[in-house]
Amino acid sequence: MKNLLIATFLICFCNTSYSQGWSLVWEDDFSGTTLDQTKWTHDLGTGSQYGLWGWGNGELQFYQAGNAEVSNGTLKIIVKEEPGGIVDSWGNTMYYSSSKIKTENKFEVRYGKIEARMKTVNGEGFWPAFWMLPSGGSWPCDGEIDIMEQWANDWPTVETTGAAHVGSCPGQSFYQSFQHQIQTGSFASSFHNYAVEWDENYIAWFIDGVKVYQLSPSSYPTIPNQHSWPFNSNDWYLILNLAVTDNGPNSLTSFPSQIEVDYVRVYENTGILGCKDPQATNYNSSATIANGSCEYLVTFRVDMNDVSQSFTTPEVNGTFNTWCGSCWPMEDLDGDGIWEKQITMLEGYYELKFSADNWSIAESLDPAWACTNGNTQYTNRTIVIDENKVICPKWGQCTPTCNSIIISDVNELSSLGNSLYPNPSSGLISLSANNTKNLKITTLLGKVVFKKDKLEGKTINILHLPAGIYNCSYYSENKFYSEKLLLIK
Q1: How far is it, in rounded angstroms, from Cα 29 to Cα 329?
Q2: Where are the domains of the chain?
Q3: Which one of 43, 328, 393, 460 is at 20 to 30 Å from 25 when CA atoms are compared?
Q4: What is the third-level CATH fold of 22-269?
Q5: Is 181 strand, coil or helix?
C-alpha cells in the first residue's frame, strides 16, 4: 500500500435562504365510502385491449373496479386469487385480480410536488406502484416517472425504488433509478410518504421528507445524442396500482393482500425553483429557491502512462451513467498518455472508476485510501460535485496530478487564522451567526448527520464526519440560515 499524505480541509460556503413554499392544488384524502369518480378512473383487464400482454410486463392480474375499496379514511387496493379465472379479450385466463386507478382526463399536471402516504405489502410476486404517464403520450419516448415501486418478497419489504424512463419510439426505454432501504420496520408495516419534486430539467425523489435521489438531463449518457429529456412536455396523470409479477407468488404468499393509501396530494411551487449558483452552467438568475438542480462542467483526466495491461480506449464509469462501460469513452488527442472526458453533471455525490475497453480492465483501489468509499468488495472512487472541477489521478491511484479542486469564496476559522494552506486538523469552522438554535447538518441527500438544539458562539467541529459536502441550517435571532460545508480529507 502506498503511504499517502492526505491534508484535511474544512471550507464553509455561506448562503442565506428561506423556506420553500408549496400551494396545494389537488388532493384526495379518501374520506368517503367509495372511490371519487370525479378524480379517478379505472384501468380494467390485462392491457390486451391496448395490444399489451400483461400490461407490457407479462403481469398475471386482471384489473377490476371492485378491488379498490374506500373505508375508514383510506383507499385499499386488494389483490385476490381467482380460482375460476377471469378471461381477457385475447382469451387469456388470469387467476389473480387487483385494481389500477388513474387521473387521466380528470387531473393532469406538469411540475410541482406530487406525494402519497401509503402502506405497502409483503409477499412474493406483489408489485405496488405510484407513478405518472404523459397524457396522449407514446412510450417510452414521451417518458415515465415512477415515484414509488416495490417488489415484495417472503420477508418484510424494506427497499423502495423510483425511476424516470426515456427512450425512442418505437424502441426500448433507458432509465435511471435508485434503491432506498429503510433502517427500521418495513414499508408494509406502517405508512410512509413517497414524493417527487419536479421542475424544468429536474426531478428529485423524497422518502418520508428526505431527498434520496435526483436527476437532470445530464444524468443520462444517451441525452442528447440518442434520446431527449421528455419531462418538460405534456401534462401528466397519476397512477396507483398493485400488480402481480410474471414470476408470480409462491406458497408463502398470502391472499387477499392489499396496499393502503391515506392520501394523494399535488402542490405547485409558490417560488421559482432553480440553480442559484452563478458558477453553474444552468444558473438561473430568476430563481428564488435553490433546489439542488445545479449542473457543473467536470473534466475527468486519467494518466495511463504507467498502465502495463494492453488497452485501446479508457472509459469513465460510475453511478452517474449506471456503470455502462463504453458509454463514456475518453480521448487522448495529443498522444501524451493522459486521457480526458468532459461532462456536464448534476450536483451531488457519486462513485466512479476508470476502466478500459468496456471493462476488459479496471482500476484496483485500496479501500483504505481516502478517495474511495471504503467498501472492500466494490472499492470505488468518490466525488462530490458542487462546482466546476477537474478529476485528474493516475490510473489506480488517489493522488491528483493537477489542481483538482476549484474553490472560491472560502471562509475558514482555525487556530492559525484564516489560512487555507496548510489547514490545521482542529476541524473548526465558523458559522455566519452567533448563538444558534436548532442547528442541523445534513448530507446533500438530506440525511441528518449532526444536530444541536443550542450552540453558544458560532464555532463547530465536524472533523469526525466523512469527507463530503454538507448542508448546515439553523436559526439565530429569529432568522433562518443555510450554509454549505465542504469537508475534504
Answers
A1: 50
A2: 22-269
A3: 43
A4: Jelly Rolls (2.60.120)
A5: strand
88's grid cell: 381477457
Query: What is the DSSP-derived secondary structure letter of residue 45?
Result: B
Distance CA 13, CA 384 (A): 15
- d(CA 292, CA 388) in angstroms, rounded, equals 15
Provide φ and ψ at 102, rounded to 5°.
-150, 160
Q: Among 363, 338, 346, 386, which Cα is nearest to 488's? A: 386
144, 260, 295, 387: the active-site residue: 144
Q: What's the mean pLDDT in 90-102?
A: 97
Active site residue 331: no
Cis peptide bond upstream of 256, omega within 30: yes
Asked if 291 and 210 touch (Cβ cutoff 8 Å), the reply is no
- 53 near 47, Cβ under 8 Å? yes
pLDDT score recorded for residue 64: 98
Other Cβ atoms less than 10 A from the Cβ of 117: the count is 18
Global pTM value = 0.70
Q: Catalytic residue, from 149, 260, 315, 412: name it.
A: 149
The H-or-E segment that residue 27 falls in is strand 22-28
Q: What is the number of other CB atoms lying within 10 angstroms of the CB of residue 17?
A: 15
Query: First vs last Cα of the chain: how many Å apart?
Result: 18
Specify whether 363 is catalytic: no
Residue 93: strand pairing partners = 87
Q: What are the E-state strand segments in 150-248? A: 159-167, 173-181, 192-199, 202-207, 210-215, 236-244
Going along 319-447, which residue ranges are E strands?
338-346, 348-356, 361-362, 381-385, 389-391, 428-430, 436-443
What mean pLDDT is reported for the chain?
86
